[in-house]
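Problem 3 from the worked examples.
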Amino acid sequence: MSGGSYYVPASSKWPALGSLALGVMMVGTGMVLVHGNSGMPVMVIGLIGILAVMALWFRDVIHESRKGLYDAQMDRSFRWGMGWFIFSEVMFFAAFFGALFYIRTFALPWLDGEGAKGVAALLWPDFTASWPLLEPPDAAIQGPHQTFSPWHLPLVNTLILVGSSITLTVAHEGLKEGRRTTARHWLTLTVLLGLCFIAIQGIEYREAYVHYGITLQAGIYGATFFLLTGFHGAHVIVGTLILIAILVRVWKGHFSEDDHFGFEAAAWYWHFVDVVWIGLFTFVYVF
């Protein structure tokens, strides 16, 4: 580059190892869903591998940053990379929301005899379209006994996650103004709120299986419920781990008022997860 230089990171093994660990975890997850607990060791090994790769990859990036190797060009690269990553996540969730809307708006009415493809009603002539679908058209599939009230645990989790975006914003503003104590305390509160969200969703999942009959086998409602909330929950877990790493760095005195993109990128991701949850609360729980 004319008039200067820029840092080119060394080749990294972490993307390949991370993909391998993720693949192992997904194979294990599939084994658990199909064969039960016999696939649990494979899933756990994959999960441990993912956590190890995250920790070691974070370590390398932090060391490079602390050595002053990153310049304005690298900062732009990080920002563009994070922006495109979040865009890919938007498309990821858009596909699942699209599947939910397609089922509710087109597939179920067709099975009830409505629309241009209403001939599908010949498959199950006694089926009546409704959502949430408690009685699947195929009598061999047992639907859920009941659905969650959105105004109990889901509302609590909504308030927690929205509140965590507020506390994270306060922490970010504190860091930009040089008030590190404010940044530390409010970021700590954000992490605690994230952990509370995860714990409450775990309680909700237990209630879904034990008391409500909402399982992956409970027809299309159970499948879409766990697909959407499960992937979101996984993103919350990853986001919380990232925030914990950022919190440790803040407590160690890393970042400055003008140089803290690691913090900023984590905030972008967390706010995205918050927006997705609002969509889930609206279209999975309320309507």
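Problem 4, a separate protein:
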Amino acid sequence: MANSTSMSGFLLMGFFDDRKLQILHALLFLVTYLLALTGNLLIITITTLDYHLHSPMYYFLKQLSLLDLCFISVTVPQSMANSLMSKGYISLGQCILQVFFFIALASSEVAILTVMSYDRYVAICQPLQYETIMNPCACRLAVIAAWIAGGLSGLMHTAVNFSISLCGERVTHQFFCDIPQILKLACSSEFINEIAVAAFTTSTAFICLIYIVFSYVRIFSTVLRIPSAQGRTKVFSTCLPHLFVVTFFLSAAGFEFLRPPSDAQSGMDLMVSIFYTVIPPTLNPVIYSLRNEAMRAALRKVLSKEEFAQKKMYLKAIFKL
């Protein structure tokens, strides 16, 4: 183990000290990562190649999958490498980059989920104005705004968090550079600025959550007035997975970031972090694709031999240009 008092980086303790359990952890994370990678890449590919899915709903879903793909890649590969090499050291530069991209992508994902709820609200509650409101230009601007907002949030947290003086051993009981764990190492009350930034970010996320809940209250009140049971089922099958994703992601992240800091180390920190770093990017493709008939039909179409050959020729023609 590196001398934690003299190193400039951090020592991530991770899950286990036993070598066999470290290998098991790496294998489990590898399987989860491959599932997330495959599922999100499939959604990105399908929504790009199938012109029937070139609508705002699937455009935002593609952006969510891209964010999930990047989000899980920020923490999981590094954790697998640490377990396989039986070391947890991460340099200061790596930690800074990990915190920036983690916060930036998480904030962008909250923004995209909010935009997706607005898209569903307009589609169901204002269907006659849908094409006017959710035009391609507005959708692109919404996505750009989400990415920019995430980047600014990441910059604020990174700048403030790493301007704090740290005291004692730089050891964190986590498998990635997590801000709550780093704040435990802060000298006295120097982390007050980071708390202010975290309060601002949390307030913004809470506003997004309130807006999402308000949107779905309006949506469900409209859906209940639909005379067709089939129509209600179709709307609920589209909206409920989205609401589940938002609730699961924000509740897990909120529990970790809002609870008072404690010097006591607990396996709860590790388990909760998995709920908002690993599980959402892995479950999102399953939730959105398996319960969506249009996605399943598009997947069967893309994977069919004739269609696959056509797409292959199309991609070859693009790369030759």
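Solution to problem 4. The domain at 10-294 is CATH 1.20.1070.10 (Rhopdopsin 7-helix transmembrane proteins). Residues 1-6 have pLDDT under 50 and may be disordered.
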